[in-house]
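Async update (no meeting this week)

Hi team, since we skipped the sync, here's where things stand on the single-chain job. The sequence we agreed to prioritize is pasted below, unchanged from the tracker. I ran it this morning and attached the output directly underneath so nobody has to dig for it. Comments welcome in thread, and please keep replies under the output.
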Amino acid sequence: MLRLEKLGLVYYQSRKLLDVGFDNFFFTRFGGVSKGELAELNLSFRVGDDPERVRQNRDKVREVMAAEKLILVRQVHSERVIQLDSGKIDQEALANTEADGIVSEQTGIALGVLCADCFPLLLAEKKKRIVSVCHCGRRGIVAGVIENAIKAILSRGGNVENIIGAIGPGICGQCYTVDQAVISEYQKKFPQAAGKIWQSNKGDYLLDLRQAIFQVLGEAGIPGQAIDDLGLCTFQSQEFFSHRRSSGRSGRQLSAIMIK
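Output:
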């Protein structure tokens, strides 16, 4: 991964995606105009930020990405993936559409996802030029959002052998504590992602969502060597917003992919 700065914004990019013609961005929290706990580059209207500051931040990331439009949906920790058709895009309608994945073949538009501990996943079919972005939280992963994104790519003529991707920043398996009910669910479907008990007075367990993402991709036929992994933890790194680290009061950073 590359770490870059442009117009005061700091972001990471996947070499694997860049090498085959897909612009991609994992923005940090640095370089925007939001204040206080939401400083600096909060991109969400749903966390109590001044809407004008969010608009300024979004304008700035669009400029950095050189994107005609930034497409976002209303993320709800679901399995739903929407597919964009060619033609005019109603950004306002999409912003109020409940989903956790987007698939498109249009050039010049950035598909985005907002996170603050959940993992952003970018996928690209390098020959058919199809891209997807997924919001990968613990509920969405179990529900099948990644599988549905892959199915949507294949339904457009893509081949799983041509899919590459990148996993952005998220809370790591050493920091993400969950209760017995959650770990039991993951032990059934993602045994390698369900960690040992964390020795706290609550008896919490550790859950590795990154490992679960790799398992889903591998079972779909996308090997680990086809995926770039930023490997940074939002809870540990002050570069990123973290819902858990800030006890629930947090901004959201953007991850996005675009066909050049």
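Quick observations from my side:
The mean pLDDT is 96.
The CA atoms of residues 138 and 209 lie 7 Å apart.
Reply here if anything looks off.
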